[in-house]
């Protein structure tokens, strides 16, 4: 059997070939290259993930190897969680390379073949719902500005037409941002940051002359916030559960 016929038979074993990734385009940054790859992948019904990053001693990434999310071998796990995708050892692979002399990135196709069908509904794919670094930063900024989640989602979809995030994506991202911001803070610091939320007018919190509060060190005890001054008590008297209570006053 000649080699051309053998190659033809071998290619028939695959469900599709994504030749669209072959490009001579030069990218100004790794982020620009990744955005190009992801947007094209979504339009083709495939999901591309990072397989490996090569870094210099200083931490700078000069090479990135990408693969299909179906790449690798499927492993049976003892879990009740049902996965929407399974590994099929898909051979698809790309390589992005940084060049110092041009301060730019290029993309090379190592293998353009897939041994599975396209994803029919990208919205249902968990990886497709993930936010890029720029989108995550935008959600973080808008969250600090108290923008409603549905408005944040609308802005993301206006900026990126291929964005398939859902309201749940935004809520999960907001929770992650808040958890990161609270790392290393004492319960007292978190408490004082939350206190203005319990006033009808948050600015009133700045004008109270004194605040009697129980200092908290841990969980499972009750703490009551009580105001003293020329302004009335807030509508809601907040309580927190903590251990090891010691009272003091700040003015």
TrEMBL record:
GO terms for molecular function: DNA-binding transcription factor activity, RNA polymerase II-specific. InterPro entries: AFT, Zinc_finger_SWIM. It holds the Pfam family AFT. GO terms for biological process: cellular response to iron ion starvation; positive regulation of transcription by RNA polymerase II. This is Protein FAR1-RELATED SEQUENCE.
């Amino acid at each position: 059997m000649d080699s051309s016929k053998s190659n033809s038979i071998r290619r028939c074993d695959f469900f599709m070939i994504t030749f669209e990734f072959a490009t001579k385009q030069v990218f100004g940054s790794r982020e620009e290259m990744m955005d190009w790859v992801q947007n094209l992948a979504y339009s083709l019904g495939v999901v591309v993930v990072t397989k490996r990053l090569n870094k210099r001693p200083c931490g700078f990434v000069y090479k990135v190897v990408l693969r299909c999310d179906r790449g690798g071998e499927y492993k049976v796990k003892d879990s009740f969680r049902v996965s929407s995708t399974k590994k099929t050892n898909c051979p698809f692979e790309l390589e992005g390379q940084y060049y110092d002399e041009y301060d730019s990135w290029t993309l090379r196709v190592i293998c353009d073949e897939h041994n599975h069908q396209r994803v029919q509904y990208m919205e249902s794919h968990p990886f497709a719902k993930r936010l890029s670094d720029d989108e995550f930063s935008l959600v973080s900024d808008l969250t600090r500005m108290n923008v409603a989640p549905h408005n944040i989602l609308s802005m993301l979809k206006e900026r990126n037409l291929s964005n398939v995030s859902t309201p749940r994506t935004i809520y999960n991202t907001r929770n992650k941002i808040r958890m990161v911001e609270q790392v290393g803070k004492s319960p007292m610091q978190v408490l004082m940051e939350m206190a203005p939320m319990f006033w009808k007018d948050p600015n009133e919190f700045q004008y109270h002359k004194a605040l009697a509060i129980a200092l908290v060190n841990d969980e499972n005890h009750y703490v009551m916030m009580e105001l003293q001054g020329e302004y009335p008590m807030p509508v809601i008297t907040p309580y927190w559960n903590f251990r090891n209570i010691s009272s003091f006053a700040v003015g």
